[in-house]
Amino acid sequence: MPDNDKLRQALAERLRASRENAGLSQGQVAKVFGCQRPTISEIEAGRRKVSAEELSRFSELYDVSLVWLTSGGSEFTDPTVELAARELN
Questions:
Q1: Among 29, 38, 75, 82, which residue's beta carbon has the most beta carbons within 10 A?
Q2: pLDDT tens, 43-85?
Q3: Stated pTM of the model
């Protein structure tokens, strides 16, 4: 699998996990976004590209950081919380 495909698949998995963690259905997300449920399904399957604007909206809706969604990096935005998390680790 080429690197772009791997990145898109990893993003798709984080989007799905974030939606489930937020307790939302694909239909509910589609309604908020003003699109059809299959669009969300295609995004979560990694078969559809996601725009920067959509990523920002997903981040807000799911209450996760954009950094975590796009790279799997730290979800913490407060440096003191991130430092405390590293210390606990």
A1: 29
A2: 999 999 999 999 999 999 999 999 888 888 755 445 555 555 5
A3: 0.78
Q: What is the 3-state secondary structure (H, E, C) of the chain?
A: CCHHHHHHHHHHHHHHHHHHHCCCCHHHHHHHHCCCHHHHHHHHCCCCCCCHHHHHHHHHHHCCCHHHHHHCCCCCCCHHHHHHHHHHC
CB 48 within 8 A of CB 39: yes
Residue type, 13: E
d(CA 15, CA 46): 10
What does R_g of the chain's alpha carbons equal in angstroms?
14
